[in-house]
Amino acid sequence: MASYDRALAVKPDFDFLHGHTSYIRMLLCDWSRFHTEHDRLVERLAKNEKVSLPFTTLTLIGSPQVRRRA
Q1: pTM of the predicted model, to two decimals?
Q2: Number of domains in the chain
Q3: What is the pLDDT along the chain (70 residues), one digit of tens a residue?
Q4: Could you tell me the residue range of the domain that residue 32 belongs to?
């Protein structure tokens, strides 16, 4: 997980990295940042940024309206 955190620190706008990092945290049952990362994902998806791949978004976001943006 530290490698993902470093990658985000170096290039926070790297395509799809934010969503993938959140997904990996979920698989590791690391819920410590879930709400803040979820809110950031939704915010960036609303701006049509390449923040998460569609199938990754399905596992992270419950809102159908937000899912359609991925």
Answers
A1: 0.85
A2: 1
A3: 899 999 999 999 999 999 999 999 999 999 999 999 999 999 999 999 999 999 999 999 988 888 887 7
A4: 2-67
